[in-house]
Amino acid sequence: MIAEFGHYLLCLAAACSLFGAVAVWAGLVKGQQAAAGLWRVCTPVAALCLAVATGILLRAFLIDDFSIAYVADHSNTKLDVIYKAAALWGSHEGSMLLWILLMALATCLVAFTQRKNEALNARIQSTMLAVIGVFCAFVLTVSNPFLRNLPAVPSEGRDLNPILQDIGMILHPPVIFAAYAGLAVIFAVIVAVLWQKRMSPQAVSSLKRIGIVTWIFLTAGNALGSWWAYTELGWGGWWFWDPVENASFIPWLSVGALLHALILFEKRARMLRTVVMLGIVSFALCLLGTFIVRSGLMQSVHAFASDPERGTVLLFACILVMIPGLVLYTLRIDAVQAADGREADEPNAFDMALTLAVCVLCVASAAVLVGTLYPVFYDMLGLGTLTVGAPYFNSFFAPMTLFAAVAAGGAQILASKNVKLTASVCAAVALGCGTVAFATDPKELVMTFAAFAAAGWLVATSVASIVIRGAGRPSFGAVLAHAAVAVAIVGATGIAQYEQEALVRMGPGAGKPVGDVIFVYRDTYKVNTHAYFGDAAHIEVLKATDESHLTDLFPMRQTFVSSGMQMTAAGINHGMLRDLYVSMGNKLSDTEWLVRLSVKPLASWLWLSAALMMVAGVLLCVHRRKEKEKNALA
């Protein structure tokens, strides 16, 4: 009966959410305070029901309750406990339940933090309850994780998808879902703003705080997904412009644009329409990503499901959720104004810089979106199949990133006391960094020079904006976020322009020089665990100059017991200046394997940049809290 209880709790959460959304809306429209305050009951009850239902499903995984179809399809008795727990969100039904739970918890958190503005809070709660209710109904109708395998209960489950049995993919989905929950709250705040016809200071503060936290989670989620692709798939890359990768990357760009637009609105009362539209569009992109991952519209190793019929229902649910925001925007955007009646001053250089940042981020997100969806529309028009790969994305994204770095650096020095002198010094530093390209042997000299120069310019202007005090100096968190972009540029350039690799046939005793190191295949040994068996190689890495020992790498070719699926676990030696990377391919003979050997300069800088961005986001949150306390005392 425990599974049925989880099902009933889902029903109760759906009913409570939908009833609460309608009741609060009606109470606000009719001015009935009792009805408008019903969210105080409905929100925590819905969150509690979803939390207990999720706990019931988690318990079913931990005790191997294969009478539940979802558990039997995505777990087995041989899985480690941590993977059994992670199997909760390992596929479509459980991951949807987790996302809805996180939205409910976020709604409770907003209710707690918005107690001083009852009118805004009630409207946010009504919208969030409606979103939660719609997705609860979707789960109950076509994606119920509590369906039974009765009367024929299997004695053993299938397995968790082997590609998900990695720490990166244990953490990646819940982090992304937490970000998606933040996007839902942003959407709810925007709906509340349109509903009230005013952008109050409380609404702006909420949007910035929630936007920063959401951006932190999106950064962490994208970094974890990238790390997983780098370490687990054995492809040797860190970003593949996969449709599902793009599904979380596009909102990261749009939320970045929203944060820049909010700064401009808060300081200069500009870009109100842009703020509102970006809040709606960011959530729409989140829903689009959810649809892509679960509909089977696009094939990907990351995809949660490939059921077109269920995808159609999900698309309908997403459209239903978006309708209130789009209708309100159409009807009320002209009437929305700042609560204090501010009017925009004459534009200055600061306005132009932030406007340019918003435009660049919006264009970048639109370009990635077009590249992701173009093959689908091409196929729908009956023109055949088409693949849009890395060359398309890199052709525009690399130059756009460099342009954004130059523009961001220029914006940072506008606050200095002597703009011309500061700009001259920073430009000299940038040119000095660019000369690294001429002292080395990159694949593309001009692009490498531009990348290092842009990164140097951004770091120099970041330091200058902190050291040289001036009016309107940016916060340290914002400066660190921009500097982190420079670190990412250096890391991506290092891999793209200086990577050396070889795809060779190797067996015991074989050696292959790559760059300034020699990879020597020492031995192959068998690996057997309860989850998989496989062959692992012991590869010693030597210095090419004197053949002294550097490190040992142990790549593995795994075959999972339950499914027979084969996976490659790369052998990697991480370093600040370079990564040494080995992955095993197919077995070519009794003793020989196809092996990919790579030297990846500055690869670790990519993960460092993501860590710096997250730290920057935390600092921005702290800075805002201090500003709020300072204003309250004033």
Q: What's the topology here?
A:
Blueprint: H1 2-30, H2 33-36, H3 39-62, H4 69-74, H5 81-86, H6 92-113, H7 118-142, H8 167-196, E1 198-199, H9 201-231, H10 243-268, H11 272-295, H12 308-332, E2 337-338, H13 349-380, H14 390-412, H15 419-434, H16 436-439, H17 445-467, H18 476-498, E3 500-506, E4 511-514, E5 517-528, E6 532-543, E7 549-553, E8 556-560, E9 566-569, E10 571-573, E11 578-587, E12 593-601, H19 604-633
This entry's quaternary arrangement is single chain
Number of strands: 12
- Estimate what percentage of residues fall within beta strands: 5-15%
**Number of helices, counting only DSSP H or I runs of 4 residues or more:** 19
Poorly predicted runs are: none
Keywords:
alpha+beta; 19 helices; four-stranded antiparallel sheet; 634 residues; six-stranded antiparallel sheet
